[in-house]
Write a structure and sequence with these properties.
Elements (H helix, E strand, L loop, with lengths): L1 H49 L14 E5 L10 H11 L4 E7 L17 H11 L4 E9 L13 H16 L4 E7 L6 H17 L3 E5 L1 E2 L5 H9 L4 E2 L1 H8 L4 E4 L9 H18 L5 E7 L15 H15 L6 E6 L6 H11 L1
Parallel strand pairs: 1-2, 1-10, 2-3, 3-4, 4-5, 5-8, 6-7, 8-9, 9-10
Helix pairs in contact: 1-8, 4-5, 7-8, 8-9, 9-10
Length: 352
């Protein structure tokens, strides 16, 4: 009896082990699904809750807003009638700075003067018809951080050429210089060195140095994981954002192209980005949150989700929760040539 019982028990064990092995792949698959889905759902719920509540009084324009303007304003395509219409469009808003595209830079950091033949005429016309509005030269280039071609900030000669290009546009009459260099990986020390040199120039001239900034890592290790999987950089660490903000007079967060599929999630994401940026931006630096004045649809940007109304409300929520009294704060509108009447209406209604 004991022998038969032992053999039966062993058979039962083998059968149970076989069933366990048969179901093990499914268990692994289920575990992986849970590891991926649960954090995503949790983050989604958190973002949606972040978009609730009342922004409260005082979370409106401080008169420090900006707008990115296309190259047509300095290459002769825009005429006096266009400027008059634009002046009427922004009258009564908080717009103070115009980032006028005067580049792009060459990959060696230089800037041909032929790229902005109509700059002096535009600057004089803006000063004459829109007192108090500053015209900054918007300069940028693709960095060779994720491919073989582009500007290489690790080269001292290239950084010196960029400073020379900034000096060049200031000599041409611009009221400041705004840089947008992408993709710029978090922690890039060469960029910080460049900003130190640029700020020495602009400070001596008494004009602002402004930059467009990547979004801040929304999770402690989101960029680490993304970088390991793709080799690409989307977010800056909050620490690095603060290091950049301390070296400039104005920093504008490109708070669009967020991958958010729904308006409520996008608004909550902007609220979080606003809070994260406010926490590390010095009070002497203008912090601007970007508004999506464009309507493309691709993997990174869903026009139905990334609306101006959601961005404005998210900005107000983040401001109200984090630093309601911050004076050097505003929004930046991207971009004039893609904007629709509804974008302007949402900006005015939500932010004024």
């Amino acid at each position: 009896m004991r022998g038969r019982t032992g053999r039966a028990a062993a058979a039962a064990v083998r059968k149970g082990a076989a069933r366990l092995l048969a179901t093990w792949p499914r268990r692994i698959a289920l575990g992986l699904v849970l590891l991926l889905v649960v954090p995503v759902l949790t983050a989604g719920v958190a973002l949606r809750l972040n978009f609730t509540g009342d922004p409260g009084d005082g979370t409106l324009t401080r008169g420090r807003d900006a707008i990115w303007l296309g190259h047509a304003w300095v290459d002769g395509r825009k005429k006096d009638a266009d400027l008059a219409a634009f002046a009427a469009r922004i009258k009564g808003t908080g717009i103070k700075d115009l980032y006028v595209h005067a580049g792009p830079l060459e990959h060696d950091g230089t800037l041909p003067a032929a790229r902005y033949p109509g700059a002096r005429r535009l600057i004089d016309a803006v000063h004459r018809t829109m007192p108090g509005i500053r015209v900054q030269a918007w300069l940028g280039d693709r960095l060779a951080s994720e491919g073989p071609d582009g500007l290489r900030l690790e080269r001292a000669a290239s950084r010196e050429a960029v400073v020379g290009s900034a000096r060049q546009v200031l000599d041409a009459g611009f009221d400041g210089v705004h840089f947008d260099l992408e993709p710029l990986h978090s922690g890039d020390a060469h960029y910080l060195s460049l900003l130190d040199d640029l700020h020495a120039l602009t400070r001596a001239r008494g004009v602002p140095l402004s930059v467009a900034a990547h979004q801040i890592d929304p999770l402690p290790a989101a960029q680490t994981v993304l970088g390991a999987l793709t080799g690409r950089g989307k977010w800056w660490s909050q620490k690095y954002f603060g290091q950049v903000a301390r070296r400039v007079d104005q920093i504008a967060v490109m708070s669009y192209d967020t991958w958010m599929p729904l308006e409520g999630l996008y608004g909550g994401y902007v609220a979080e980005q606003t809070s994260l940026a406010l926490e590390v931006t010095p009070r002497g630096t203008d912090l601007l949150m970007g508004l999506p004045f464009f309507h493309e649809n691709d993997l990174g940007h869903h026009a139905s989700a990334e609306t101006v109304a959601a961005a404005v409300r998210g900005t107000r929520l983040g401001l109200g929760r984090t630093d309601r009294g911050r004076e050097r704060f505003g929004v930046a509108l991207y971009v004039d040539f893609a904007a629709e009447d509804g974008d302007w209406a949402a900006y005015r209604e939500g932010w004024h």
